Structure formats: C-alpha cells, structure tokens
Amino acid sequence: MGDVRWWVRAGGAAPADLAGNIVVFGVAESAWLKVLGVKTKGFDMSKLLHLEASPRKERSASIFVARAFIESYRAAHPADEVETWDLWAESLPEFDGETVNAKYQILHGLEHSSQQASAWQAVTDVFKRFNSADKYLLSVPMWNFGIPYKLKHLIDVITQPGLAFSFSPDTGYTGLVTGKPAAVIYTRGGEYSTNEQVRGLDFQKPYLETLLGFVGFLDIRSVVVEPTLGGPGDVDRVKSVAAEEAKRLAEAF
After folding, report:
1. pTM higher than 0.90
2. How far apart are CA 53 and CA 141, in angstroms?
3. Which residue range is the domain that position 2 belongs to?
4. The domain spanning residue 90 has which CATH number?
5. 137 with 50: CB under 8 angstroms?
6. Residue 162's closest CA among 231, 201, 109, 198?
7. 94-153 confidence digits (pLDDT tens)
C-alpha cells in the first residue's frame, strides 16, 4: 500500500506520528487497515481464536464457561476479533497416505511429489488458520481421561515440522507458535484436582499443557470445572464459580 502517513478518523485526516504509524480512532478503520497489512497504532486489534471441542452445545459445561469468558473478553477488548472454531462442524484432512509420506519427505530433507505437495497444502491451510490468531481459548471436556478425538485430530494435523515446531541436532526441538497466550477451560465429571485416588488418571490437562508448551506456548492459563456430575444445584454452583473465574481471566487476557 506504500508509506501511508495520515490519521484515519471520521472527521478527516491529520499527519501520522514521527515513526510513520497510522493512529486509528475507530474499530472499523482498524479492522480495515489490518486486512491491508498496514501497521497501526492506537486501536491495535488482536484475534482471539476459540477452539470448541464439545459436541453438546447448550448442554456443555465447557462451552457455558467459554461463553462467559468471551462475553467478558469482548467487553474488555471491544476492538478485537473473536472467532469460534467448532471442531464438530467442519472436516479436517485425514493424516494418511500421501500426507504421511509428505511429512517424512520434510523430515528427510527431500522434495515433495505433486501428490504429496497437494496433500501437504491441506495441512498447511489448517495450520495457517490456527496460527492466524494472537490469543487462544480452548474449551475442552474430559473424554475417557483425555480429550475429545476431534481436538486430537486437529492437534495431529497442525503439529508438524516446519509449521508448529522445528528440530536441530544442536538445539533439539523448538516451538514455533510463540508470543501468544492460551487459556484452557477443562471440564470433567469427577474431581481430579484434589482427589489423590484419581489424580493419576488425568490425561487431559497434563497432555494439553505439554503439547502447548512443545509448540511454543509459554503463557498458559487454565480454568478447571469439576465435578460436573452431580445434582443439578451442585453442578450449577460449580459452573457459576468457574464462569466468574473465566470472566476475571478474560478481562486481563
């Protein structure tokens, strides 16, 4: 677009600051400039990506708390974009055949065939959507002590060499998704945080924290919602307490 040097505002134009940054006064103008790739100052928009891993929708405790987070986040960050990626509403590429072959070509430093390049492009497109965000919110129910298979599918597609991480014989693995915070809402029917008898069965929170750390996340915040199996009054209280915690977290996120 070139070296633009004016302020964008409803009433007209004025010079930019000495660094040549555009000073934006309106949310709509800021969004428009971000699309154009212009550096802005004043209303610096961020994108929050919500990964929704539950298929239960209105009956889901994780979505209930996530919506409380998003409501508070929108109030605190009105200029920001919020996108919800419902993992049950869209298909992801299968990680088989030429896609697996394409991954090993990369690991061995070899070129892709045309079929492999096409398969790998589908993986790259999914990663680009994920990586387009500046901040992340994951709402994750516990399934069989772990995470829903739809979320695991996404993780297996995007956690790839040259995309989410790199490897060097000298330095080992390096995460490439850096400088971004993640908030994770964990819901589980039992009480795993305080019950020593079942604590070792929690492969939900430890796994996600390990995975997020591996790909580069250093700022990982969590809200644990448990137990969600109980009498209606007890469950409502658990959800309400978690929702308030999520709202506080969102304000400064």
Report:
1. no
2. 7
3. 1-45
4. 3.40.50.360
5. yes
6. 109
7. 999 999 999 999 999 999 999 999 999 999 999 999 999 999 999 999 999 999 999 999
